[in-house]
Design a protein that fits this description.
alpha/beta, two-stranded parallel ribbon, 8 helices, 15 strands
């Protein structure tokens, strides 16, 4: 494993040990010690996580409504699509976590985000077909799609009957059948090149063209938004009666000052609401210190500020 993977494994093992100790002591794990095991593992009994109570395991078809131990069902839920049991020992990309996340405003407006990890055509198609067959078609609806595998063409290109790679229109049709009006596709990737270059992709121009054929907007690439010279985060806010709205870069210029004034990321969008978004849509209950996503956001800001890109490139390579 690479150094990052080794550190991730060490942290998970530390959290498993901390959680087991808390359970033994009849306590809830502390913030920063919690762990959730998602999916199946043929070798689970060989690892310490096998000793965790059932509540710490999540499987496809389950719904997550807690963040850092807090029940936020009225605002958030994540439906787990994958990894499937049949793929637990397959290619590492086939074990990717696939989620549909729903964000809920106080007036009942729902924003749906679809995250399909590094999955390729066969499993993505299975997710859509299984959801439709089980009467869960709403679980593949989307307003924002994070394009699989950093906008790789493997999401919708595969070998045909003649052995040649071909566009799988059936999957594009499935994506389009569940897309909302004004939906957006995001490519978490380096900037696109002038042409696809085997060995240096993703992102693939072919994939970008396919996504743009089923939506009314261009694909937004994190490596070139709003410019290649100074990329900034792609941020969406849930606005009552409208849904997920792209927050303009100019609205984020004073992010550091807003975070300081709001005493943490939980109220970031609420503070910004004075200029563009209704504050009531984003405020949550006050907490004494950042937890969950707020703590993660604060950690990133402490480590590299609001504008700097990660110093180490992770996750790209031959497609």
């Amino acid at each position: 494993m690479c150094e990052d993977a080794q550190r991730f494994q060490e942290e998970v093992e530390r959290r498993v040990d901390a959680t087991l100790k808390a359970v033994k002591d009849g306590k809830e794990p502390a913030s920063g010690d919690r762990v959730r095991i998602i999916g199946y593992d043929e070798d689970r009994e060989l690892h310490s996580c096998a000793e965790l109570p059932d509540e710490y395991f999540t499987f496809p078809g389950d719904v997550i409504t807690k963040i850092d131990g807090q029940d936020v069902e009225d605002r958030f839920e994540a439906f787990v699509h994958a990894p499937f049991k049949d793929h637990c020992a397959g290619d590492r990309n086939d074990t990717s976590l696939a989620l549909q996340v729903q964000l809920k405003a106080s007036d009942g407006t729902v924003g749906r985000l679809l995250f399909l990890g590094d999955l390729a055509y066969p499993i993505i198609k299975m997710i859509f077909e299984n959801s439709e067959g089980a009467g869960n078609a709403d679980r593949v609806e989307w307003d924002v799609l994070l394009s699989p595998h950093h906008c790789s063409k493997k999401a919708m290109y595969a070998e045909g009957e003649d052995g040649e790679e071909e566009l799988k229109q059936d999957l594009l049709d499935l994506f389009q059948a569940h897309v909302s009006a004004d939906a957006r596709v995001i490519a978490s990737s380096r900037p696109f090149r002038d042409k696809d270059d085997t060995g240096n992709d993703p992102p693939h121009l072919l994939a970008r063209e396919a996504y743009e054929s089923i939506t009314d907007y261009e694909v937004l690439c994190t490596g070139e938004y709003p410019s290649k010279e100074e990329p900034r985060p792609v941020v969406f806010a849930l606005e009552p009666s409208l849904g997920l709205e792209l927050v303009g870069v100019t609205d984020l210029e004073n992010k550091a000052q807003v975070l300081k004034a709001a005493s943490g990321g939980r109220r970031l969008l609420a503070a910004m609401g004075t200029t563009r978004f209704p504050a009531a849509s984003f405020t949550g209950a006050s907490v004494p210190h950042p937890r969950g996503t707020d703590a993660a956001r604060a950690g990133v800001q402490r480590a590299r500020g609001d504008k700097a890109e990660p110093t180490v490139q992770i996750g790209f390579g031959a497609a």
